[in-house]
Amino acid sequence: MQRVLFHETIFGPIHSRRLGTSLGVNLTPNDGKICSFDCLYCEAGFNAQGRGTTGMADPDQVVRLLEEKLKAMKEEGTTLDTITFSGNGEPTLHPHFEEIIDSVIALRNKYFPEAKISVLSNATAIGNPAVARALRRVDNNILKLDSAITSTIQLVDRPVSADFTAEKLIDRLAEFGQDCIIQTMLLRGEYEGQPIDNTTPAETAALLEAYKRIKPREVMLYSLDRTTPHRELHKVSAEEIQQIAQTFREAGINVAACQ
After folding, report:
1. pTM for the model
2. Contact 22, 82 (CB under 8 A)
């Protein structure tokens, strides 16, 4: 079984194809996974591996470890483009997410004021007022929308909540508008006898209507880049991603196609 990617609370810096030189913050366990989705393509593996033993990161430890790392990077003359909340699951599920964001903003301002703060989220917790407030304070509020069709999200992203629908998610995303970036993973494959393809005309038309409703600052289109826990998935070519991106651009959507 594919296991968690990150065994530290602060990791990197690493090079991100979307965000440049990125220092990661993992608020979820270092030895397990906590997420409200169970995506077939998740690089941190499936939720079935368990929640681990370390629990959610202690807020004081997050601040201490991040400050130690930022101070060392500053002294070494290392450049930094972004501090990115990612890790082994969904960062916005942390019960102290808002206060951690405030602390990280203060540290960023102290050591690397030119760096951005980014959060990679599946958007399932944006109905929580504290989470929404925190996400409005970061530079890059990057929210997942892999499909505008509920059955496709249920197949690919496998939401834990039984009452999840794409319509409810899109309604909440629309409340952010220009305060969010939408991230969409394009892929093909098969799972339990069901075909997967969110690049079909019906899928892209539904996504376009969702983007028009949300009115995000930007849409990020990308495809698989690493090993996935479900092996029957296939990457969409860079050329095809560019073609889909161009269709969205012609409709007035600001799109970044990540290679």
Report:
1. 0.94
2. yes
Domain edges within the chain: 10-257
Q: What DSSP designation does 93 have?
A: G
The amino acid present at 70, given as its one-letter code, is: L
Residues 6+ apart with CB under 8 A from 106: none
Sign of CA dihedral 121, 125, 126, 132: negative
Residue 58 DSSP code: P
CB-based burial, 66-83: b 16+ in 10 Å, e otherwise: bbebbeebeeeeeebbbb
Closest C-alpha to 138, from 14, 221, 259, 19: 19
The per-residue pLDDT string of the chain (259 residues; one tens digit each, 9 = 90 and over) reads 788 778 899 998 888 767 788 999 999 999 999 999 999 999 999 999 999 999 999 999 999 999 999 999 999 999 999 999 999 999 999 999 999 999 999 999 999 999 999 999 999 999 999 999 999 999 999 999 999 999 999 999 999 999 999 999 999 999 999 999 999 999 999 999 999 999 999 999 999 999 999 999 999 999 998 899 999 999 999 999 999 999 999 999 999 988 6
Where are the extended beta strands (E) located within 145-209? 181-185, 187-191, 194-197
Distance of CA 237 to the CA centre of its chain: 21
Q: Is the dihedral of CA 146, 150, 151, 157 positive or negative?
A: positive
CA-CA distances (angstroms) from residue 226 to 9, 42, 45, 53? 21, 9, 11, 26
DSSP state of 255: E
Contact between residue 46 and residue 229 where contact means Cβ atoms under 8 Å apart: yes
Residue range 10-257, CATH number: 3.20.20.70
